[in-house]
Amino acid sequence: MADKNILKSKKADRRRRRVRSKIKGSAAIPRLTVSKSAQNTFAQLIDDQKCSTIVSAATNASAVKSKLKKDLSKVEAAKIVGEVIAKLAKEKGIEKVVFDRNKYIYHGRIKAVAEGARGGGLKF
After folding, report:
1. Tens place of pLDDT for every residue, the chain, 124 residues?
2. Which of 14, 42, 68, 124 has the greatest CB tally within 10 Å of its CB?
3. What is the distance between the alpha carbons of residues 11 and 28, in angstroms, rounded to a whole number?
């Protein structure tokens, strides 16, 4: 059983490295990275040159929790996270980003965050 989990994590690391080798964020065009857990979805705008997070949003953050309704699915909640991250980026004067899907396929919650951010006015 342990061998299977080690293999899965090695494959995930390989996918993450492959994606990140093609994507770099800067202060002018930061990297919008998305990650998820079993319950929550997280998004961050990262400046890779300074190695710092510019803004972040998550389904368990207070800015997003106030907009969530009790019967929303995880995909709908992820779309709201995308809209919130776009709003926070606009406040900082950021209009263009590079999307980093991390080790995940562009599907479900990851796609919903991207669509929410585009709906909020960010350009990829």
Report:
1. 678 888 988 988 898 888 888 888 888 899 999 999 999 999 999 998 999 999 999 999 887 888 888 788 999 999 999 999 999 999 999 999 999 988 899 999 999 999 999 999 999 8
2. 42
3. 32
Q: What is the pTM of this model?
A: 0.86
Beta bridge partners of 43: 34, 57
Query: Rounded to 5 degrees, what are φ and ψ at 68?
Result: -80, 140
Number of domains forming the structure of the chain? 1
8 Å CB contact between 34 and 100? yes
User: Residue 124 domain-assigned?
Assistant: no
Instruction: Indicate the pairing of strand 41-47 with strand 31-36.
Output: antiparallel
Distance CA 40, CA 74 (A): 8
